[in-house]
Write a structure and sequence with these properties.
The chain has helices at 3-14, 19-22, 36-50, 53-76, 81-98, 103-146, 151-163, 167-183. By secondary structure, it is mainly alpha-helical. It has two domains: 1-98, no CATH class; 103-184. The longest helix has 44 residues, at 103-146.
């Protein structure tokens, strides 16, 4: 494949539009929503045929939401929070209403799972923040000896604050580091 063919292929891939836009369905959530109804209906019938009534209500609601989310994910590659969060709230209230003896389990299980899933990310952030503190100390020592901050440390800290330092603290630290670097 020549360089010109590679460039045109790359451009075609980058310019590709989702199938829902190509088929004239700009305003709809999915290109073929008529396929979702029968799939959801089969899952609702299966849940009522195999589960007790109270469990079938929750299972049918959950299955319907999962089918819609799976279709959107397959078509667009995203899982929209505007569907997930209200559905989670409705299912939580539904489970509390249908199974009041399990209030503690329905409440603590999602909280525990979210904390466990967030733990690796929190450890990762703690490592980067520790590294940033060490670089800031090294930058202070370099500034003491040379009279100006080391450009390598300033670049690292600026990039770190741009990507990790969010909120007021990040803005303050970014302003201090950049004003010190620009003044020298």
């Amino acid at each position: 494949m020549s360089a010109k063919e590679t460039h045109s292929t790359t451009a075609a891939v980058l310019d590709a539009t989702p199938t829902s836009v190509e088929s004239g369905a700009e305003g709809r959530a999915l290109a073929r929503p008529e396929l979702l109804g029968p799939i959801i209906a089969v899952l609702v019938v299966l849940s009522f045929a195999t589960l007790s009534f109270r469990h079938a209500i929750v299972g049918a609601a959950f299955a319907g939401v999962l089918v819609v989310l799976a279709a959107i994910d397959l078509e667009r590659g995203i899982i929209p929070n505007r569907i997930v969060l209200p559905a989670a709230g409705v299912l939580y209230v539904l489970q509390l209403a249908l199974f009041p003896s399990h209030v503690l389990a329905w409440t603590l299980a999602p909280l525990t799972a979210s904390l466990l899933l967030a733990l690796p990310h929190l450890i990762w952030l703690a490592g980067w923040f520790s590294l940033a503190v060490l670089v800031a100390i090294a930058n202070g020592i370099a500034t003491l000896f040379s009279g100006k901050p080391a450009p390598m440390f300033v670049r690292f800290l600026s990039a770190f604050l741009r990507f990790e330092g969010v909120g007021l603290l990040g803005q303050i630290l970014r302003t201090v580091f950049l004003s010190n670097h620009l003044a020298n």
